[in-house]
Amino acid sequence: MSKKILILEGSPRKNGNTDLMAQEFAVGATEAGHKVEKIYIKDKTIKGCLGCGACQRNGGSCVQKDDMTEIYEKIVAADAVVFASPVYFYSWTSQIKTVIDRTFAIEPTLTDTKFYMLSSGAAPELKYMENMTKTFELYISCFRAGGVENAGVVYGLGADAPGDVKNTEAMTAAYELGKTV
Question: Helices in the chain by DSSP H: which ranges?
């Protein structure tokens, strides 16, 4: 059965290491018969969460009218959502973090969605990525409705210059993870 996969690319660099991993994930998923859409967050206008809670009181509609409205619809319609973000100072890029914060609007109602994370960084060892793993797992745990799960994570270690991730185990792992959706 074909599934809808949404890749939210949080890197400010198109064709950077994380984007290359996301492309490989998409190839694997497409070959497995799924439909993949990628959104480059840097090309969208998304304001930071106001913390007003209006979205939680009115059925998930944020009071801010920006490009996040479109992304909400796509997340809710997706069977799988991929957060692709390089590691910046042990954490998400500001682009993807803004999207994550704004998903507070749909948090009470999102169900049966698999979440994946793809990340690259110059760090040579996994220990430098532990904060990303922890925050991703904690994010997934916030969803109260059933069926939301962490379906997999792939890291591209030692990827500093654009293209460093090419021909690495991370690219193969991203491709294989895409095939398993």
Answer: 17-31, 54-57, 68-77, 94-102, 130-141, 169-179
Q: What confidence tens digit (pLDDT) does each residue in 118-157 have?
A: 999 999 999 999 999 999 999 999 987 788 999 999 999 9
Q: Please provide the distance, in angstroms rounded to a whole number, between the alpha carbons at the two ends of the chain.
A: 11
- φ, ψ dihedrals at 84, nearest 5°: -110, 115
* Alpha-carbon span 25 to 31, nearest angstrom: 10
Rounded CA-CA distance 155/75 in Å is: 23
4-9 β-sheet, strand order: 35-40, 4-9, 80-84, 114-120, 149-156
pTM listed for this prediction? 0.96
Contact predicate 133/116, CB 8 Å: no
